[in-house]
Specification:
This protein has helices at about 40-55, 65-75, 135-145, 160-170, and strands at about 1-5, 20-25, 25-35, 85-90, 95-105, 115-125, 150-155, 170. With about 180 residues, the chain is of the alpha+beta class.
Length: about 180
């Protein structure tokens, strides 16, 4: 399912947790940091986890071609800021992350800059879900979009992720279509 958000229509920024309960009565601080080229191995690792989860693939499924393609993508677009990623860590442990890619279309009446963004790879490792990590990751990504003056953002959602995106203000798209060639 594809959904979108119009940042101009958002009234309030959503609230999010900054602590997670790892063990009973043991809150720990999460950090969210914009990824750099030094994080490329972590980004590819997260990307492969996302692909396995979304496509219901086993650990035995060979994703070496996707690993190679993901490295090539990050090497090309991460340094240009056409792709921005955030990594969520609990201490040194990577617990999730997400990405946003920017692209341009011809300006329209509702999008006079023609700049759009696409959110992808929003992922929290299973043992850390339902603690606000993906929500805060979205906060970081949408702040990047706001800083660039982007008003229109789309993403594809799993059924499991749909509630998160709807709670943030994303809406199901009714007028866009796609074709696979």
């Amino acid at each position: 399912m594809e959904v979108s958000i119009d940042l101009k229509k958002m009234q309030n920024k959503p609230e999010y947790m900054e602590e997670v309960q790892v063990e009973k009565n043991a809150p720990m601080k999460l950090t969210y940091r914009r990824a750099t080229m030094e994080d490329i191995d972590v980004l590819v690792e997260i990307r492969l986890e996302v692909l396995r989860a979304v496509n219901h693939l086993s650990e035995e499924e060979d994703l070496s071609h996707m690993e190679k393609a993901s490295y090539a993508y990050y090497r090309k677009f991460l340094p240009t800021d056409e792709h921005i990623a955030y990594i969520a860590r609990l201490g040194e442990e990577v617990v999730g992350g997400g990405s946003i890619g920017f692209y341009h279309i011809m300006p329209t009446y509702t999008n006079p800059t023609g700049t759009k963004a696409y959110i992808m790879n929003v992922y929290t490792r299973p043992e850390y879900r339902r603690q606000g990590i993906a929500f805060k990751t979205l906060d970081c990504l949408l702040e990047e979009a706001r800083n660039r003056g982007v008003d229109y953002i789309t993403l594809k959602s799993t059924l499991e992720g749909r509630k998160l995106y709807e709670s943030y203000g994303f809406q199901k798209m009714e007028r866009e279509m796609e074709i696979y060639l």
